Backbone:
């Protein structure tokens, strides 16, 4: 158990809908990262937050947004969902912000299925 | 731009035999390299990382990896494989030209250990 929790584990929804994925980092970690894992794209970095502020952006669609709250949990919002958004979404956390050497610890993921 | 490649989609090995999972990288400057393992329906688990220093890095569950700068490789090894090592293995690189440590992952290598 990495100490990173994600809810829900599974999410099934329809095209055009909006969903929210939640992540709680390990105790004491200030950085939260979101990744998407799909069969065709592999594991892709989406976005990073540090202590409530956005710090890095990757291949994140404009329909997707995220935030990190004062208690350090993070939410990833996916809107106008398309079939191609079906994937496993991982949250990871690490202790530091400016830390390319940091170890990122991953949660169990949320499996999103868009029908 | 940095990239990481895992040239083998799948590695098959008999239990008790040595296991090697290959990874090559391309980065500007010194690389920060990581190995993660993913079991079915689970999140990614950190195995080990190379930041600097000794080229042989020891990690969890008896795994080790050898950093080779001249060959730009970071192969994962285990002297004696177990059936329980069957999983999906990911190599990742963290860019050191960017202080925000987003990981770039390889496509993954499926390891199958047969009894």
Residues:
């Amino acid at each position: 158990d990495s100490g990173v929790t994600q809810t829900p584990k599974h999410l099934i929804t329809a095209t055009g809908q909006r969903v929210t994925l939640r992540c709680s980092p390990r105790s004491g970690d200030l950085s939260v990262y979101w990744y998407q894992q799909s069969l065709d794209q592999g594991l892709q970095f989406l976005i990073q937050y540090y202590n409530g502020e956005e710090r890095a952006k990757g291949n994140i669609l404009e329909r997707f947004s995220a935030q990190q709250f004062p208690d350090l949990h993070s939410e990833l919002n996916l809107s106008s969902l398309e079939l191609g958004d079906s994937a496993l979404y991982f949250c990871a956390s690490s202790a530091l912000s400016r830390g390319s050497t940091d170890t990122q610890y991953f949660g169990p993921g949320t499996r999103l299925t868009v029908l | 731009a940095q990239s990481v490649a895992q040239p083998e989609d799948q590695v098959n090995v008999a239990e008790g035999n040595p296991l090697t999972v290959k990874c090559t990288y391309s980065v500007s400057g010194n690389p920060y390299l990581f190995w993660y393992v993913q079991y079915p329906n689970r999140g990614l688990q950190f195995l080990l990382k190379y930041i600097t220093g000794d080229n042989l890095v020891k990690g969890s569950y008896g795994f080790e990896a050898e950093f080779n700068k001249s060959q730009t490789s970071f192969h994962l090894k285990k002297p004696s494989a177990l059936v329980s090592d069957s999983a999906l293995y990911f190599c990742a690189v963290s860019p050191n030209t960017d202080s925000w440590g987003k990981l770039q992952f390889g496509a993954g290598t499926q390891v199958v250990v047969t009894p």
